[in-house]
Design goal:
120 residues; 84% helix; single chain; elongated; mainly alpha
Length: 120
């Protein structure tokens, strides 16, 4: 792996984090008007702040933020499992797997970035 490939993995991961944050923001705003989307409520604004902060940390090539972004996303998906199963939204699992893939790639990218930048 070279530094350009590591940067691409990091970029893909922070864009994925931004997409999750935007989707959560939209769901939270809609919940203010009584429209339930993705079973997100008013507390989704806290998630937006956390997701945005971790994505920005990933943009800054932080390994810790990359790991916590994955952990936070996995935790939030585990909390939503009862709602997903109840509504039979299997597409939600496919979307979750895609985001998990990008977040794992972001961890790999940050680790290699720091390893390669240290050797130069």
């Amino acid at each position: 792996m070279n530094i350009e490939k590591a940067n691409k993995l990091i970029k893909d991961a922070y864009i994925a984090g931004g997409l999750v944050a935007v989707a959560t923001l939209i769901g939270s705003v809609l919940s203010l008007f009584g429209i339930k989307v993705f079973n997100i409520d008013i507390y989704g604004f806290i998630d937006v702040i956390i997701l945005s902060s971790l994505s920005f940390g990933l943009y800054r090539k932080s390994r810790v933020c990359a790991i916590f972004l994955l952990i936070f996303y996995l935790f939030s998906r585990v909390v939503q499992i009862p709602f997903v199963v109840k509504n039979n939204l299997y597409a939600s699992y496919i979307v979750a797997i895609v985001f998990i893939y990008y977040f794992v790639q972001g961890i790999i990218g940050t680790v290699y970035y720091h390893k390669l930048s240290k050797t130069k």
